[in-house]
Amino acid sequence: MKSYTVNIPGFTIGGDDAYAAIETVCATYGKTVAILGGETALAKARPALEAALQKTSLEVTDWRMYGKECSFANAERLAEIPTVADADMLFAVGGGKAIDTVKVIAGELQKPFFTFPTIAATCAAVTSIAAVYLEDHRFDRAYDANHPPVHTFINERIIGSAPAQYLWAGIGDSVAKYYESRLSARDRLILHSNQVGVTLSGMCAEPLMQSAVTGYKDAQAGKTSEALRQTILNVIVSTGFASIFLEPDYNTAVAHSLTYGLVELPQVEANHMHGELVSYGVLVLLAMDGADDELTKVYDFNRAMQLPTCLADIDVTVDELEPALTRALQTFDLNVMPYKVDKEMYRNAILALEEYDRSRKEVIGA
Q1: Alpha carbon of 168 to those of 29, 100, 208: distances in Å?
Q2: Binding region for glycerol
Q3: 229, 204, 236: which is closest to 214 by C-alpha?
Q4: Which of 22, 106, 149, 257 is deepest in the core (most CB within 10 A)?
């Protein structure tokens, strides 16, 4: 049997006081730090970060905007800047693209890095995997930094004050972690790491759905609350930790493959967020799998969250599905499934969901 290693980061959640943990968490990793992030993210987080850093012995070598895209070319450019290259550690401040850019830099320079998410749209802040794009914004490939961040500092005040649609999309994406990993693992002998991942993914279902509606409303109102905290933790930490323990083939399934197909349609790519589309894909997954009780549960949740429940919600007609379904079947997301998925199964599930949506709306008068 081959050995394997699983690394998970520590995390701190709170308001601005979450950054106070920098002093004890980062002390053993060196004396200098370069801080990179998005323009808006740095503007939002810098005052609290500076206040916390003043109470440490860390020297900041650079405050620098990461750019506009997580690309290998951009990461290489940043890695060659002396104030970045010579720093003992890196801080990544912002959303997924900023954090993923720092992952690539840290991976190539073999430096420890720490994350400071300013939105809760993905679990990027706790994982080692970066989604890397070309300079023209087309997807390039996934990059593994070989180690996740040492620690993630979650400032719920900053996340709660960000545009609420990021959290909305993050919730939709996170719910899929449970349903996709459970489906992928069905009827397969999965051992400890994958078992832990599937078990952790359960936090992305019932616990997340219990807090998300209130948490999202509180985010819309710009206020912190226990519901918002629990929602953020499940979007960033639970989803991310499950992803770390799960092998790639168990991390995804029907909902993500359909999403990557749907974004082939220009109106979908231009007007809809990734997590929004994934949330629709979960309903298609459940319709395809004949999981009627779970379909009802997630459908009701999507309605409460104003996430999509039918093709019209994502600006697609049945007649436009062909290129989306062709692309969906080409993705790696379907590599491990309890049954072979084909185009007819996708179409039938989508049509079944359309009929279910119509019948439910007739009953509730919506």
Answers
A1: 35, 21, 12
A2: 173, 256, 274
A3: 229
A4: 149
**Annotation: binding site for NAD(+):** 96-100, 127, 133
Which residue bears the tokens 């020297």? 59
Domain ranges of the chain: 8-159, 162-363
Choose which CATH entry (3.30.470.10, 3.40.50.2300, 3.40.50.1970, 3.40.50.11240) describes domain 8-159: 3.40.50.1970
Residues annotated in a binding site: 96-100, 127, 133, 173, 256, 274
For the stretch 73-111, pLDDT in tens is: 999 999 999 999 999 999 999 999 999 999 999 999 999
Name the architecture of domain 162-363.
Answer: Up-down Bundle (1.20)
DSSP 40-68: HHHHHHHHHHHHHHTTSS-EEEEEEE--S
